[in-house]
Amino acid sequence: MVSPYRSNSPFTFVPSRFLDFRPKGETERRKNGMDRRANRFDKVNSVQTTRMIVTSALIIWKALMCVTGSESPVVVVLSGSMEPGFKRGDILFLHMSKDPIRAGEIVVFNVDGREIPIVHRVIKVHERKDTGEVNVLTKGDNNFGDDRLLYAQGQLWLQRHHIMGRAVGFLPYVGWVTIIMTEKPIIKYILIGALGLLVITSKD
């Protein structure tokens, strides 16, 4: 059998792995140190990646607010009060311009004392002669009566500052993820933990 290192040269070829004269323990310590530095670099890189993702999401959200003129450009339908037009779990895209609100438009509005906004249709518009201010009355398409029972006590109309935006588009059922995480917080925590673990342990 012929050695792979034999040649016609008067000099003997010795592989570089045989030329390491450092003690074995020192070599292992240096290797372990390099591994620890690499792990620290990966963790720092993962944290920076997470921060960039969060920052990018916030920037996109702020940009949407400026473009649409709505404080909440995207909302999720949480009830069946607007069926069959919009079903629970649909995502609505909102836009708020300076144009007057008209009867028949679908709007998302806040009610004093309630944290969750409501998406219903404008059924009546009332203009005050003394100030020219336009007030609106809303109703869910799938409800029997108007929304005055949902308004704050003694409130008969919605004013413009209550309106978050007009519905200009929608995606069906996509919002079910948000509904599930809201109704079952344990699932939200599991998903957040899994995503965090994936970011930390993933390597390029």
UniProtKB/TrEMBL annotation:
Domain of life: Eukaryota
Xref: Pfam families: Peptidase_S24
Name by which UniProt lists this protein: Signal peptidase complex catalytic subunit SEC11
GO cellular component: signal peptidase complex
Entries under NCBIfam families matching the protein: sigpep_I_arch
Protein's organism: Solanum tuberosum (Potato)
Gene3D superfamilies in UniProt: Umud Fragment, subunit A (2.10.109.10)
Membership in a protein family: Belongs to the peptidase S26B family.
